[in-house]
Amino acid sequence: MSNLKTLLSGRSRTLVRWEFGLVLLLIATLIFGANESKYFLGWQTFFFAGLNFGEIAIMALPMTLIIITGEIDLSVASMLGLSASLLGYLFIHGWNIWLAMGICLIVGILGGALNGALITILGLPSIAVTIGTLTLYRGIALIVLGSNTAQGFPVSFTKLSLPIAHTHLAWDFAIFIVLALVFGVILHSTALGRSIFAIGLQPETAFFSGIRVKRIKFSLYVVSGLISAFAGLLYTFQQSSSASDTGLGLELNVVAIALFGGISIFGGRGTIIGVVLAVCVFGSLQASLTAINVSAQAQNIVTGCLLLVSVLLPNLTQSFSGTKRKLQRRKVVGTQ
Amino acid sequence: MHPHEAVLKVEHVSKSFGLVQALIDGCVELFPGEAHALLGENGAGKSTLVKILAGIYDVDAGEIILNGVPVEITSPLAARAAGIAVIYQEPTLFPDLSVAENIFMGRQPLSAGRRIDKAEMIRRTKSVFERLGVDISATRKARGLSVADQQIVEIAKAISFDSKIIIMDEPTAALTEVEVARLFEVVKTLRSEGSAIMFISHRLEEVFAMCQRVTIMRDGNFVRTSTIEEISLDEIIFSMVGRDIVSVYSRHNSELGDLILDVKGLTRAGVFKDINFQVHSGEIVALAGLVGAGRTEVARGIFGIDPIDAGEITFKGKKLKSGSPLAAMSAGIGFVPEDRRQQGLVMDMAIDRNVALASIHDLTRLGLIKGGSEKSLATRWASQLQVKFGRFSNPVKTLSGGNQQKVVLAKWLARTPSLLIIDEPTRGIDIGTKSEVHKLLSELVSKGIGILMISSEMPEVLGVADRILVIHEGRLSAEFSRAEATEALIMRAATGQESVVA
User: Fold this and answer.
1) Residue A125: how many CB atoms within 10 A of its CB?
2) Does residue B261 sit in the same domain as residue B373?
3) Which is more confident, A260 or A138?
4) Which one of B11, B300, B336, B357 would you mutate to disrupt binding with A, by most A Cβ within 10 Å of its Cβ?
5) Which of A9, A10, A212 sits opposite B326 (nearest CB)?
């Protein structure tokens, strides 16, 4: 035990412990699922887990960076819905599909830029701003597509819902893995990544060290908007349809994944690998709960509890050690 | 000599933050009706002790005895209930509420129907002010009150709480002479009413004028308590410093080099006005003045932290873009800020990453940080500055104050700046590290760096600087060479009694 402690007394002991816990949890859910169903460890589980979580997982990557800077973006799912609706609308009205996709991505960039501008230039709190744009972007989606459902997208696109040819890998999961690599390298091995952590931990020091705090935050919101719009396209093609309520409420799942991955809601702490592990745990957990016929509603209870635990646990250990110290002190005073 | 029992007894209290032992053995005794000075250098543990009594920090060990009963002061509310009031150097009033509302915040007198009885509140405020013999309107807003008046409001608040122990943390630092005299009168009134006053100050003349007893601390330890009659100024200084003060400063003689920084007409509305000065390579220029005079703000203006409204900064012959720390950094300016915890370091980040933070862009290849480059940069500077640390991957908050300051210095020196602006270079660090930092500064200038230093410690200003500029209320009020500067001359210029600008 003491050996393990010295081994882990490095840069990020709590994080390493957290990720270690996630790995254990992942193994546990896999064993549990495999016990319940002999098909569990087959490729279908892997494939469908990916398919159910892909968009959420993809949007969790820019969300991770934003939360590490100490901010949040709650408008991601609305941007996904807006992008999906706009794609549907343009496609129904006979636009070239590539052009329509390009416009959706531009709208994503603009939406992210609006968030970023309100937060960095006007200095408004990100939670308030993005709750506002959450409603705004969903409202625009409703105006664009109304109560219609857009369908009939070209098969060459809707086949994104099938696994990648010659593999059992879902497209969105594969895209997530590639993006996770990119985001992981940015966060952990570039000057930008160091700056993001510094901003989240001590924004004033970051500014005093020549880090362009506002510009970085602004860019992260733009990236978040772009990725969310992209997730909207992916979602549409995988469902082969889009409506104005596409992805309603997913922003909470996105935040949940990030927090479960060990990203501190107070900023400054977390790793991309933790988020990837959290995605895997959630996916495998959902699959194993489905394997024992737990309804989707009841699954929400499990995910909700997991989320609470992930937020509570780090705080509990802190206040626990605090109480312990206090008790020890009382004892010392008492024996005098 | 004291017929009554001590109202407050602090016995062997200790407190540490991580590895830093801020308070090792804090002891002090307060009797009703006395003004008691708590003295010590920066970092002696005075503020920690005050914060413990204010209920902000809890103690690691030791006892606080109030009127003979051991107590635990767990929160500011508990401190208030125990009758302890702390008046800070910078009072924190609600600027948009009236003076009376500030005093009775959270416990306003109520009339029938549980409505706030404004008339009663104002009447009571007036009677407290009358008791103190001061003339402040009870109905005016707190915004715009002078620091001195704000302190009086805080004192009035303490009295209205019936606090019997009033702790003042450097109350006179930003006060004019007239205001100090009024404060003394107020303290006299409080004493006659049986309150105990603990007074923290660096101005020893004031201590002699106002206090009956002194307690001296050094490096977190209690040194001695004495009545004011039984101790001399020299004895106090010796007890505070623990050694002959003259030997602390060592100074290489370096040659004055080229002009590097030329500041002309620098103005920021309401903060500082028409500041003109130059810094050459190979010299240390000190900005002296009272807290709040605008010294730090001038430095922030030069480094681009705050925008400036008028004036020009020329650096090595080129006009410096204002309002951009990045521009100042790439031109060759480094800035060691006043507040190490909030502005100098990322406390939860590893030591090596803190050292590399300002030079991180120089450590990349194809956008990626070269493996181990942060560590090797940190290794180089840590050994040069003799930083004592466990391992580089530990967060910088585990270091002592002095070593933290070295990390900030390393962070900027790693960029090999031509001008280093350094705000309070030795605030809150132990005396050993202090002289190391002073030695380092003089080594740096002998290598041709120019240094602009801000310091509130007079011996430091006199001992380290080649030239001393004094700022009073946002204006340059005097300039002295090393040879002509004396503590008295600087203080007079800093308090605006004399203007000697050439």
Assistant:
1) 12
2) no
3) A138
4) B357
5) A212
Q: Which two tokens stand for residue A262?
A: 């060990």
Residues B162, B37: one domain?
yes
- Say how far apart CA A56 and CA A59 lie, in whole Å: 5
In a domain, B112, yes or no: no
**ipTM greater than 0.90, yes or no?**
no
SS3 assignment for B32-77: CCCEEEEECCCCCCHHHHHHHHCCCCCCCEEEEEECCEEECCCCHH
Range of the domain at B347: 342-415
Question: What is the rounded CA–CA span in Å between residue B261 and residue B278?
Answer: 5
Q: Would strands B115-116 and B110-111 be described as parallel, antiparallel, or unpaired? A: antiparallel
Residue A316: C-alpha distances to residues A312, A313, B347 (Å): 6, 5, 22
Yes or no, beta carbons of A329 and B61 under 8 Å apart: yes
In this structure, is the dihedral angle defined by the CA atoms of residues B47, B52, B55 and B60, taken in order, positive or negative? positive
Domain contains B464: yes
Distance CA(B394)–CA(B53), nearest Å, equals 31
A167-192 pLDDT, tens digit each: 777 888 889 999 999 999 999 999 99
Contact A191 B364 (CB under 8 A): yes
pLDDT tens for each residue of B46-95: 888 999 999 988 888 999 999 989 999 988 889 988 999 998 877 788 98
What's the domain count of chain B? Answer: 3
Q: Which domains does chain A have, with CATH numbers?
A: 13-318 (1.10.3470)
Q: Which residues of A touch B339 (CB under 8 A)?
A: 204
| CA nearest to B71 within chain A | A333
Q: What is the mean pLDDT of chain A?
A: 85
Mean pLDDT of B474-489: 88
In B, minimum Cα distance to A184 occurs at: B368
Contact between A208 and B326 using a beta-carbon 8 Å cutoff: no
Minimal Cβ distance to A202: which of B60, B325, B346: B346
- Where b means 16+ CB within 10 Å and e means fewer, A53-75 reads bbbbbbbbbbbbbbbbbbbbbbb
The token duo for B127 is 């009677």
Cα(B501)–Cα(B492) distance, integer angstroms? 13
Nearest CA to B31 out of B196, B159, B226 is that of: B196
Order across the sheet with B318-319: list the strands. Answer: B272-280, B259-268, B310-315, B318-319
